[in-house]
Design a protein that fits this description.
Length: 488
Amino acid sequence: MKKIIIIGAGFGGIAAAALLARDGHDVTVVEKNDQPGGRAIVWNEKGFVFDMGPSWYLMPDVFEQFFALFNKKPEDYYKLIRLNPAYRVFFDKDEIVDISPDLEKNLQLFERYQKGGREQLKKYLQAAEYQYTIAMKEFIYKEYRHLWDFFSLRLLLKGSKLHIFTSLDRYAQRYITDQKLRKILEYTMVFLGGTPFDTPALYSLMSHVDFNLGVWYPDGGFGALARGFQRLAVEQGVKFEFNTEVEKIIVKNGSVTGVKTSKGETSADLIIANADYPYVEMNLLEPTYQTYPKEYWEKKAIAPSALLMYLGVKGKIKSFAHHNLYFATDWEKHFQTIFHEPSWPENPSYYVSCPSKSDATVAPADDENLFILVPVAAGLEDTPQVRERYFNQIINHLELLTGENIKDRIIVKRLFAHKDFTQYYHAYKGTALGLAHTLGQTAIFRCSHQSKKVKGLYYTGHYTHPGIGVPMVVISSQIIAEQLRSSP
Ligand SMILES: Cc1cc2nc3c(=O)[nH]c(=O)nc-3n(C[C@H](O)[C@H](O)[C@H](O)COP(=O)(O)OP(=O)(O)OC[C@H]3O[C@@H](n4cnc5c(N)ncnc54)[C@H](O)[C@@H]3O)c2cc1C
């Protein structure tokens, strides 16, 4: 039995804690904030309950697989609702389409926009399903320690079908010529902190996730999901210390011996850092123990930050579904400002979540809970003036799109961007999502699960393989737990 300290109570941290406690270790999670869930923190104000981070529950199979490791089911901890429509897309004021849980309806939609689109979508989804199945079996759950692992013979043989070396946009064009439909197939790349122009086409598997596996909602929101994960961990014997910040990882003779926290020193045989990787390396370790020093991070493609707006609105907004996406006509320009020419976008695409459409507990009766997300480059200058300007621009635009009055009905308002990401989560450059999923930052090229300089120091979470998103960080922890089981 080892004494293990986990730094951070994000989903990655809690999943690792539960798995390692299940294996008989003495596990404590130390979290600087006052609640579980990491970026899935919750803010309560005047009867509104805001999920401040993730809102799309995707890949239900991953959660099932995780809970099965404890002989449990997700339903033992939270209730799931399949959303209908899965989401609503606003191309313009008079051009609004719904993506349905019913595939037939989506096929009809594609046929309406592109002659032959029905068959093309079918083929695209068949390929996406194949890619998903192979990726899950041979790629996602795997630990990569050597280059050879990545370019293993099997993968190379399958490489052509997995489309690792083509961009998603180029790949999608082979099937879908209509630009609006392509946006529907490509928008999920923002979830991966990338663009369809830079992300490997392998990630077209996200369309299988989106269209076939469905878009779900944990009743009570992601706060309820985080509490469900925490309950599972506590049942395994995990202890949680909230409002406790780790200030230093103590290393002696190249091995971890404990941590110094805001409340004192604690010894440990193993440490698993779930906190943002660059922060841990650059701030909690002496330079000689940093596998990835400052210069490394400066060269990396950092995933976007976001300007978030949490709004409590008096009365209902008829035009919204639970998830709503607005795709600007020139969305390439917006992507350009996120990655290649970091700057605030002129005419951004954005996302509006309205969970009060499915969940009566997140807003006072007959009112609406809105969460607006504008993806923007990490590292931008974030001032109250800029935030306010975008707030006005987006709300005016939303009123135009929906034809409904929103601004005058806002009774709760909070804006959140780079500075808050850094203050809340120690996020490098204020990133919301960590490390982008470019080809050069996939699998073995992501940050290592194990420190190369310090014995007993491991990392889980969105900087590591397989990457960004709640299901991905849960898998990241499964990989570590498996590794520790097989070679403790
Ligand atoms: C706005 C937004 C929307 C998103 N939407 C979705 C979505 O719809 N679906 C989806 O699946 N994913 C979504 N994601 C991505 C997803 O939330 C993340 O990939 C995932 O939650 C990251 O989990 P993690 O465990 O790696 O890290 P985190 O959740 O960041 O957890 C790390 C924890 O470490 C703590 N910490 C940091 N430093 C210290 C320290 N020194 N001492 C103690 N504790 C420390 C932090 O406070 C934090 O709680 C979204 C993310 C954001 C920000």
